[in-house]
Specification:
By secondary structure, the chain is α+β, with helices and mostly antiparallel strands. Helices cover about 65% and strands about 5% of the residues. The chain folds into three domains: about 200 residues, Up-down Bundle (Growth Hormone, Chain: A); about 190 residues, Growth Hormone, Chain: A (Up-down Bundle), CATH 1.20.1250.20; about 130 residues, Jelly Rolls.
C-alpha cells in the first residue's frame, strides 16, 4: 500500500501532469453544463418532443465521428500545448457567442447548430491531451498511475458533471447564463493549461544534433513508425477493444431489458442496475491503478477479462436484482481494469509522433462500434436469445483477450523506468567523483537517444551542443587532419564512456566525428547542463576541466 501511495503521490507531484489533469476535469465539467442546457432548451422550445430532444443529444456526437481522425493528425502535426490553448480560447469565444444568440431569443435549431460548431472545436482537445500525457511523465513508472488518475477523472466528470450543471442552473435558471458559465469555466482550464511546457510537438526520437540531414533521417526512420514487433499486439488490442466497445454499448439496452423483462423492476430496477455499473467503474479505477503497478501486465489484464466474461455469463443465468447488480458491477470493474492496463501498454507501443492519430482513430472506432452495440443488441436479443448473445460476447472477448496477451512480446513486462539508463551518466569515470546531488539533477535533465548502427552522431566541424554517455552499444571516433585527407580512426568507445565534451568546454566546433558501430543507446546532456554539472560557466576558451577526460589527453 505504501508503494501505491508513493506512486500516486509521485504522479500528482508532477506539476505538468497535475495541470493537464486539472484542465481536463474543469473542461469536462464545463461541457456538461452546456450539454444539459441544450437538452433543457430543446425541451422548452418543443414542448418536450422526445424525438427532437433525442436528436439534440445525438447531433453533438457528429463532429467527433467526422473530425476525430483529423484531430489526431493535428495533435501529431502541431505543438500540442499550443493546440490546446488555441482550441480552448476558441471555445470561450464560441460559448460567448452562443450565450448572446440564446439571449436574443433564437430558436433551439439555431442554438443547437451553434453548439455543434463549438463541439467541433472541442474534438481537438481529447487526442491532444491523450497524446501529450505520456510525454509529461518523468519516466515509464508514472505512465500507469497517470492513466489511472486520468480514467478516474473521466468517471468523476461523468458522475459529477450533471450534478454540477443542475446546481448551476438551479442557482441561475437561465440558458444564456449556462453557456456563458461554460465559457468562463473553460477560461480557467485554459489558464491552467498555459503552464504546460512548450514541448508538446512531437520530435523525431532519434534526431541528433550535428548530423547531416541524411544521417538524421536515417536515425529517425527506425523510430518514426510503429515498431514492427508491436504490429500484432496493436491489432489484437484493437480487435479486443472493438468487441469490448460493442458490449459496453449494448449494456445501455441490456440494463433496461433486465429491469423490465427479467426482474420486472421498471424505472427503479433500471436505476439500481445502472448504479451498479457506475460503482463498478469507480472501484475499477482504484483496483486498476493498483494492478497497473505490477511488473507483469498479463495477470491484471486477464483478471479484467475474467471479470467481464464472468459477469456476462452471470447475466444470462441469474434473475434477481442483487445478483444482476453484482454481475454488472463485475463487468464495469473488469472494463476499467482492461482499459487502464491495455491502454498503458498501447501507449508504450505507439511512438510519440503517431500517438495522436492512433488515439483519435481508436476513439472514433470506439464511438461507432459503441453506437452499433446500442443499436443492434435489441434485435440480436430477439434473433439469438439473451443467453446465447451474452455467451457469444463472453467467448469472443476471452479469445481476443488471450490472443492479445499471447502476442505481447517485449511489452509483457512493465519497464522499470528510464532511471537505470540515465544512471550511466554518473558511471562515466571523469564524472563519477562529482557530487551525487549534482549528478542526480543532471540525470533528470538528460535525454535518452537511440541510434541505429552506421548513423553519424556528431560530425567534425559542427557546433558542440551536447555531451553523450554510452549506455549500450559501441561507437567509433574518427578525425580528418586536412580537407583532402582520409578519416583516421582514433578509437572505439563502449558502455560507460562519454564523448562530445571538448567542443563544449573549449567553446569550439566538434574536433572529431563519432559514428555508431552498433545500435546504440545514449544519454545526452545539453551543453548548458553539462557545464553546470562540471561546475564551469559559459564556454570562453580551453578549460582545465578537459584534463578530467583521459581519453582526450
Amino acid at each position: 500500500m505504501r508503494g501505491l501511495i508513493g506512486a500516486y503521490r509521485d504522479v500528482l507531484a508532477n506539476r505538468d501532469l497535475a495541470r493537464i489533469f486539472a484542465g481536463f476535469l474543469i473542461g469536462s465539467l464545463a461541457d456538461w453544463i452546456s450539454a444539459i442546457a441544450l437538452i433543457i432548451l430543446a425541451w422548452e422550445t418543443t414542448d418536450g418532443d422526445p424525438f427532437i430532444v433525442g436528436l439534440v443529444g445525438a447531433i453533438r456526437v457528429i463532429p467527433y465521428l467526422v473530425l476525430g481522425i483529423p484531430a489526431g493528425y493535428a495533435a501529431d502535426r502541431f505543438d500540442r500545448r499550443r493546440l490546446l490553448l488555441v482550441c480552448g480560447s476558441a471555445r470561450i469565444l464560441a460559448m460567448a457567442a452562443i450565450a448572446l444568440i440564446a439571449a436574443a431569443g433564437a430558436g433551439a435549431p439555431v442554438v443547437v447548430l451553434a453548439a455543434m460548431a463549438a463541439t467541433t472545436i472541442s474534438v481537438f482537445f481529447q487526442p491532444a491531451i491523450g497524446a501529450l500525457l505520456p510525454a509529461l511523465c518523468r519516466d515509464e513508472r508514472q505512465l500507469g498511475p497517470a492513466n489511472a488518475v486520468y480514467a478516474s477523472l473521466d468517471i468523476l466528470a461523468v458522475l459529477g458533471g450533471p450534478a454540477a450543471a443542475a446546481i448551476a442552473l438551479a442557482l441561475v435558471p437561465s440558458i444564456p447564463f449556462a453557456f456563458a458559465l461554460n465559457g468562463a469555466i473553460f477560461g480557467v482550464a485554459v489558464l491552467i493549461l498555459r503552464g504546460l511546457p512548450a514541448r508538446g510537438r512531437p520530435a523525431p526520437p532519434a534526431a541528433v544534433s550535428g548530423a547531416r540531414a541524411d544521417a538524421a533521417a536515417a536515425a529517425a526512420r527506425p523510430a518514426a513508425g510503429v515498431d514492427s514487433r508491436a504490429t500484432r499486439p496493436i491489432v489484437a488490442l484493437l480487435v479486443f477493444e472493438l468487441i469490448h466497445s460493442f458490449i459496453v454499448g449494448g449494456l445501455v439496452v441490456i440494463t433496461a431489458y433486465l429491469a423490465y423483462d427479467i426482474i420486472r423492476g421498471g424505472d427503479v430496477g433500471t436505476a439500481a442496475l445502472n448504479t451498479a455499473l457506475g460503482a463498478g467503474g469507480a472501484v475499477g479505477v482504484v483496483i486498476g491503478g493498483i494492478l497497473v503497478l505490477r511488473r507483469r501486465v498479463e495477470p491484471p489484464f486477464l483478471t479484467g477479462v475474467i471479470l467481464i466474461g464472468g459477469g456476462l455469463l452471470a447475466l444470462g443465468a441469474v434473475a434477481t436484482l442483487p445478483a444482476l447488480m453484482a454481475a454488472l458491477f463485475a463487468i464495469a470493474l473488469g472494463s476499467l481494469i482492461t482499459s487502464i492496463v491495455g491502454g498503458t501498454v498501447y501507449q508504450r507501443m505507439v511512438p510519440d509522433g503517431a500517438r495522436g492519430r492512433m488515439l483519435a482513430a481508436l476513439d472514433t472506432i470506439w464511438e461507432v462500434v459503441y453506437a452499433l452495440g446500442a443499436f443492434s443488441v435489441p434485435s440480436l436479443i430477439v434473433i439469438l436469445g439473451f443467453g446465447p448473445l451474452v455467451l457469444a460476447c463472453a467467448v469472443a472477448l476471452a479469445v481476443t483477450g488471450l490472443i492479445f496477451v499471447a502476442v505481447l512480446g517485449p511489452w509483457r513486462t512493465q519497464p522499470e523506468g528510464d532511471a537505470p539508463i540515465r544512471a550511466h551518466l554518473s558511471r562515466v569515470p571523469a564524472l563519477s567523483a562529482l557530487a551525487p546531488g549534482r549528478l542526480a539533477r543532471a540525470e533528470r535533465r538528460a535525454e535518452i537517444v537511440r541510434i541505429a548502427a552506421g548513423v553519424t552522431i556528431i560530425r567534425q566541424g559542427d557546433p558542440a551542443d551536447r555531451f553523450f554517455a554510452i549506455a549500450a552499444g559501441e561507437v567509433e571516433v574518427t578525425q580528418v587532419a586536412a580537407p583532402d585527407d582520409a578519416p583516421r580512426v582514433l578509437r572505439r568507445m563502449g558502455v560507460d564512456e562519454g564523448f562530445g565534451e571538448i567542443g563544449i568546454l573549449a567553446g569550439s566546433p566538434r574536433t572529431a566525428t563519432v559514428t555508431a558501430v552498433t545500435d546504440a543507446l545514449l544519454v545526452a546532456l545539453s551543453a548548458a547542463d553539462f557545464l553546470e554539472l562540471v561546475g564551469v560557466g559559459e564556454p570562453s576558451g580551453p578549460s582545465s576541466v578537459a584534463l578530467a577526460f583521459p581519453w582526450h589527453r
